From TrEMBL:
It comes from Chlorobium luteolum (strain DSM 273 / BCRC 81028 / 2530). Pfam families: Cas_Cas7 (PF05107). InterPro entries: Cas7_Csh2/Csh2, CRISPR-assoc_prot_Cas7/Csd2. It comes from the Bacteria. This is CRISPR-associated protein, Csd2 family. GO terms for biological process: maintenance of CRISPR repeat elements.
Length: 299
């Protein structure tokens, strides 16, 4: 059960300066760009990774983490509940014989799913597919996030870089008197991106996602770039978080209509390509928000 009783829709504004916000491994790690429009893209997976990292730093446990063996974590969930998946099910409604040794079935799967939701923040937030290994089923998370798209076309710059060291003695012997090796680095000079997200009270009730969890999520969106610094990503910052709170679980207005109230435009005096957030102005139409409350958490 969850104490969340309202629907939320939100818009996240963030920018990058002299960095690569989300490289594409299928394109030599170039910044992701819509080939038809030139707009920059950042995937939902990339944004959720940053949220997960912040949540882990805050002390919460997460399921999708570096070097985690997911099937082992699923098996541990049954061991910690003292459910032996090598024996026939205790509940006859789940079958007299176990279908496959080491794999949950029937009501055991629901117990495993509930335990995983209570244990791991990212499962009860974003959902997860846990039908591998011991099988804890699937969870559809209450929070869904779209790709982020830049408000204007971006350009990907290619930089040549050099390395003054080599990795092996053999490489050193090949290069007489000069150990430099060449490489490439890609950056976006500047880009302002917008992503949209949705919070479902109905799905929160299924996963146990609470009001406290939601508070941590808002905190993560505002601060996640502060703990994700790297030379490759340049200067990334959250520039705006606008949350539309509905008065009911079903909502009081279509999400797209609410998002259309947020306008990000270039300032009239700004000439040439944008190079900072100061080149833009953000305006919001707050009239006629019947049953919807706008929270400007960061602007």
């Amino acid at each position: 059960m969850s104490d969340l009783t309202k629907r939320y829709d939100f818009a996240l504004l963030f920018d990058v300066q002299d960095g690569n916000p989300n490289g594409d491994p299928d394109a030599g790690n170039l910044p992701r760009i819509d080939a038809e429009t030139g707009m920059g893209l950042v995937t939902d997976v990339c944004l959720k990774r940053k949220v997960r990292n912040y949540v882990q730093l805050s002390g919460k446990d997460i399921f999708i983490k570096e070097k985690a063996v997911l099937n082992t974590l699923i098996s541990n969930a049954y061991e910690e509940q003292k459910i032996d998946l090598t024996k026939d099910p205790v509940d006859l409604k789940d079958g007299k014989k176990r279908n496959k040794d080491g794999t949950a079935q029937g009501g055991e799967v629901e117990k495993g799913r509930s335990y995983m939701c209570s244990r791991y923040y990212d499962i009860r937030t974003f959902g997860a597919v846990m039908s591998t290994g011991a099988n804890a089923g699937q969870v559809r998370g209450p929070i869904q996030i779209t790709f982020a798209r830049s408000v204007e076309p971006v350009v990907a710059l290619e930089h040549s870089i050099t390395r003054m060291a080599v990795t092996t003695e053999a490489d050193a012997e090949k290069q007489s008197g000069d150990n430099r090796t060449m490489g490439r680095k890609y950056t976006v000079p500047y880009g302002l991106y917008c992503s949209h997200g949705f919070v479902s009270a109905h799905l929160a009730n299924q996963t146990g996602f609470s009001a406290e969890d939601l508070k941590l999520f808002w905190e993560a969106l505002q601060n996640m770039f502060e703990h994700d610094r790297s030379a490759a990503r340049g200067m990334m910052s959250t520039r705006g978080l606008y949350v539309f709170e509905h008065s009911t679980a079903l909502g009081n207005a279509p999400a797209h209509k609410l998002f259309e109230r947020i306008k990000v435009e270039r300032k009239p005096e700004s000439e040439g390509p944008a190079r900072s957030f100061e080149d833009y102005t953000v305006t919001i139409d707050e009239s006629g928000l019947d049953g919807v409350t706008l929270h400007k958490m960061l602007c």
